[in-house]
């Protein structure tokens, strides 16, 4: 029988639809009976939403300008070539 | 049917092929953060920045060979990954991979020996998602915690969540198995879960 710890281990696979049919049904059955795991999965889903809205590398402006300059030089030599 | 994004991208690719400086500057700003996420998986920060710069210089010529079989972003990420792998090969080094357990210690410690929750989820923040997303202090805290993720987890999360690559593409770019990618992503999500829970409970980051 699927226990809460097992569900926590595969929580991301469940919310991303990566579980096989049998495992997905076991998770759904467990969630019907377990309020704490429903909270865990709900919270994990919201964590994913928060991450999607925030995660990216911050690029400082100085480095961006350095990349622009490198590209400009390469474009110039492409133009000459 | 073409999406707005694919139309934009095909315009951008045409402009890049024509050697338009403004298009390159736009592409540098749009795509470099993701390219850095790829490079940081393999290399330290300074080497990663070098590789991204070398890649752009190379792309000025190589864009002529871009045929659109993958998206521009995926194409750029693959070039960066290959350059990083070549660097590691030349230096006779490998990425040390430590994928570990599926559960974060802060979650793993919350179960009884039988596998039921001993310390169940304290808050039900799914009910407050919108207000959470608008909370500036939480947003700063989130930035801080995402920046503090181990580099491999951070790269995997950025490519999968922020850049919305398919899992298969992330595995190819980072040269890892699907199961290892799942571990990296699940661990990172749990860290953020714990951070939000703690923030809601204490109001502090």
From TrEMBL, chain A:
Domain Putative zinc-finger as annotated: residue spans? 12-38
| Name listed for the protein in its UniProt record | Putative zinc-finger domain-containing protein
Instruction: Give the organism's phylogenetic lineage.
Output: Bacteria, Pseudomonadati, Pseudomonadota, Gammaproteobacteria, Pseudomonadales
From TrEMBL, chain B:
| Record keywords, A-Z | DNA-directed RNA polymerase, Sigma factor, Transcription, Transcription regulation
**Cellular compartments per GO CC:** DNA-directed RNA polymerase complex
Tell me where in this chain the RNA polymerase sigma factor 70 region 4 type domain is found: 140-192
One Pfam family here: Sigma70_r4_2
User: What superkingdom does the record give?
Assistant: Bacteria
Domain RNA polymerase sigma-70 region residues, every copy: 28-93
Identify its protein family: Belongs to the sigma-70 factor family. ECF subfamily.
Q: Which NCBIfam families match?
A: sigma70-ECF
Under which name does UniProt file this protein? DNA-directed RNA polymerase sigma-70 factor
Source species, please? Marinobacter zhanjiangensis
């Amino acid at each position: 029988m699927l226990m809460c710890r097992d569900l926590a281990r595969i929580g991301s696979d469940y919310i991303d639809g990566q579980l096989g049919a049998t495992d997905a049904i076991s998770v759904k059955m467990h969630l019907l009976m377990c309020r704490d795991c429903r909270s865990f999965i709900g919270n994990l889903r919201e964590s994913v939403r928060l991450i999607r809205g925030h995660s990216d590398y911050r690029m400082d402006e100085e480095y961006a300008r350095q990349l622009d300059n490198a590209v400009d030089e390469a474009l110039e030599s492409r133009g000459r070539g | 049917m073409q999406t707005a994004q694919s139309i934009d991208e095909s315009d951008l690719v045409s402009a890049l092929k024509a050697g338009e400086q403004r298009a390159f500057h736009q592409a540098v700003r749009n795509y470099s953060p993701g390219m850095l996420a790829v490079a940081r998986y393999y290399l330290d920060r300074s080497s990663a920045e070098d590789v991204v710069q070398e890649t752009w210089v190379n792309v000025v010529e190589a864009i002529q060979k871009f045929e659109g079989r993958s998206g521009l972003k995926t194409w750029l990420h693959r070039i960066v990954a290959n350059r990083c792998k070549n660097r590691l090969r030349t230096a006779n080094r490998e990425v040390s991979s430590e994928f570990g357990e599926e559960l974060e210690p802060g979650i793993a410690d919350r179960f009884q020996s039988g596998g039921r929750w001993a310390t169940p989820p304290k808050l039900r923040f799914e009910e407050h998602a919108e207000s959470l997303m608008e909370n500036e202090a939480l947003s700063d805290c989130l930035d801080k915690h995402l920046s503090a993720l181990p580099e491999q987890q951070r790269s995997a999360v950025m490519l999968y969540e922020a850049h919305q690559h398919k899992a298969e593409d992330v595995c190819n770019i980072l040269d890892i198995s699907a199961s290892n990618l799942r571990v990296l992503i699940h661990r990172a999500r749990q860290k953020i879960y714990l951070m939000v829970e703690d923030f809601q409970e204490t109001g502090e980051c």
